[in-house]
């Protein structure tokens, strides 16, 4: 049986995987971090479920989905993650889960402090600032040193906890959406716990491309997406709460749809995309058959390293994401050093080279271009990117 590392370089194998996706003509998509494509098989299953729910309507939903199917699907997801079934509630996306966890966290008193960093997702940052305003709290924001190292990331949090002893709750992003930096979650959580600080983990970009053990990381509260690297239809995410910590999160907006204690009361209540949820078993089966996050992540990092290795040789380009394999994934950012605003370079990549990327702002390291390979990215696509970077780096 081939090693995962060898399989990541097997172009014949991955060409066959690429053929499972229907690709529209047009620009080469190097913005796969927004949301992932469904395979053809998943898209067909989703379409069948849309038609089925449309035909059966509330009869099936009331009698089957609401009664048992939603729990069966939830339990399959929990089994994949090797967590307690009662620790997961279905949501529309990671942001819904994270905002609910933040606004309903009960362990805060006026004068307490909340901790965020310059790499949080906007909806998480906004929620933390809103809670601070509503409850008379102080927000502490730290800036990670650039370029980041494993030790510098830990040191940032050591200093924050030492300098601000009233921190009670912090946001932590597993994979940052701006630069693709992967934070050492388990080590940071251990530091936080030692200082009596609870962590709410943003795992939106991690699930499906990072091989992690959720219970072993020591995280009590987290939110995840299923429509990025798992390959599910849009509008699927979930909330995780360690069952022993359920009482620390109040029911969302007083939700009492289910008898307490039940994590589903912590999820925002509303009509779900039922057809999408009925498709999830197919998605999880394909994900598992492919080798899960270990195999997917190895392929993505291999393809990522092909272009990053060349880009680092080019004067005029700064790659912002570290090469330490513990700290990177499919998402990697760069900047052209001869310009401050990277948006015109994004436009040139598209206009002159047919490469679709996205500019990102907000981190302390400044404006950057996010380049995210995907499962359908080919070596020809990577060669086109390398050619573009060589030519554009010359100014």
Question: Can you give a write-up of this model?
Answer:
With 395 residues, the chain is α/β, with parallel strands linked by helices. It has two domains: 128 residues, Aspartate Aminotransferase, domain 1; 240 residues, Type I PLP-dependent aspartate aminotransferase-like (Major domain) (Aspartate Aminotransferase, domain 2, 3-Layer(aba) Sandwich), CATH 3.40.640. Helices cover 43% and strands 14% of the residues. It has twelve helices and 13 strands. The strands form three sheets. A seven-stranded mixed beta sheet has the order 2-8-7-6-5-3-4, sandwiched between helices. Strands 9-10-13-12 form a four-stranded antiparallel beta sheet, with helices on one face. A two-stranded parallel ribbon has the order 1-11. The longest helix has 42 residues. This is Aminotransferase class V-fold PLP-dependent enzyme. Keywords: Aminotransferase, Pyridoxal phosphate, Transferase. GO terms for molecular function: transaminase activity. Pfam families: Aminotran_5 (PF00266). It comes from Pseudomonas weihenstephanensis.
Please tell me what the overall shape is: globular
How far is the first residue's CA from the last residue's CA? 47 Å
SSE arrangement, N to C: HHEHEHEHEHEHEHEEHHEEHEEEH
Largest sheet: 7 strands, mixed
Beta-strand content estimate: 5-15%
Question: Which percent range fits the helix content?
Answer: 40-55%
Described by its quaternary structure, the protein is single chain
* Count of DSSP-assigned helices: 12
**Total DSSP E strands:** 13
Tally of distinct domains: 2
Which class of the largest domain in CATH terms? Alpha Beta
Mean pLDDT: 96
CATH superfamily annotation of the largest domain = Type I PLP-dependent aspartate aminotransferase-like (Major domain)
The CATH topology of the largest domain is Aspartate Aminotransferase, domain 2
Structural class: alpha/beta
User: Which value, in Å, is the CA radius of gyration?
Assistant: 21 Å
Uncertain parts: none
Strand order of the largest sheet: 2-8-7-6-5-3-4
CATH structural architecture of the largest domain: 3-Layer(aba) Sandwich
């Amino acid at each position: 049986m081939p090693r995962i590392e060898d399989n990541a370089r097997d172009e014949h194998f991955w060409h066959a995987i690429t053929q499972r996706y229907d690709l529209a003509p047009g620009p080469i998509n190097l913005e796969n971090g927004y949301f992932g494509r469904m395979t053809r098989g998943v898209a067909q299953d989703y379409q069948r479920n849309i038609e089925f729910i449309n035909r059966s309507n509330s009869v099936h939903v009331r009698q089957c989905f609401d009664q048992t199917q939603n729990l069966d699907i939830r339990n399959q997801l929990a089994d994949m993650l090797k967590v307690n079934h009662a620790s997961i509630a279905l949501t529309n996306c990671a942001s819904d889960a994270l905002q609910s966890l933040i606004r309903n966290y009960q362990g805060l008193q006026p004068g307490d402090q909340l901790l965020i960093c310059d790499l949080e997702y906007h909806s998480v940052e906004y929620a933390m600032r809103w809670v601070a305003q509503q409850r008379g709290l102080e927000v502490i924001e730290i800036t990670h040193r650039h370029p980041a190292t494993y030790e510098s990331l830990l040191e940032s949090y050591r200093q924050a906890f030492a300098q601000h002893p009233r921190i009670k709750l912090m946001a932590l992003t597993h994979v940052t959406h701006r630069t693709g930096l992967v934070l050492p979650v388990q080590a940071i959580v251990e530091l936080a716990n030692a200082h009596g600080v609870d962590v709410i983990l943003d795992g939106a970009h991690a699930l499906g491309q990072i091989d992690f053990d959720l219970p072993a990381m020591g995280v009590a509260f987290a939110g995840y997406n299923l429509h990025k690297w798992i390959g599910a239809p849009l509008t699927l995410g979930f909330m995780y709460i360690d069952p022993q910590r359920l009482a620390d999160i109040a029911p969302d907006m007083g939700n009492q749809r289910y008898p307490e204690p039940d994590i589903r009361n912590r999820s925002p209540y509303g009509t779900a995309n039922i057809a999408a949820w009925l498709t999830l078993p197919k998605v999880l089966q394909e994900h598992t058959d492919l080798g899960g996050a270990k195999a997917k992540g190895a392929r993505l990092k291999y393809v990522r390293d092909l272009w990053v290795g060349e880009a680092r040789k080019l004067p005029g380009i700064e790659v912002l994401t570290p090469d330490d394999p513990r700290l990177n994934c499919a998402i990697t950012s760069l900047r052209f050093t001869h310009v401050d605003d990277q948006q015109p370079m994004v436009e040139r990549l598209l206009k002159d080279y047919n490469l679709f990327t996205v500019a990102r702002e907000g981190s302390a390291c400044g404006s950057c271009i996010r380049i995210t390979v995907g499962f359908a990215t080919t070596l020809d696509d990577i060669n086109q990117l390398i050619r573009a970077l060589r030519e554009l780096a010359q100014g």
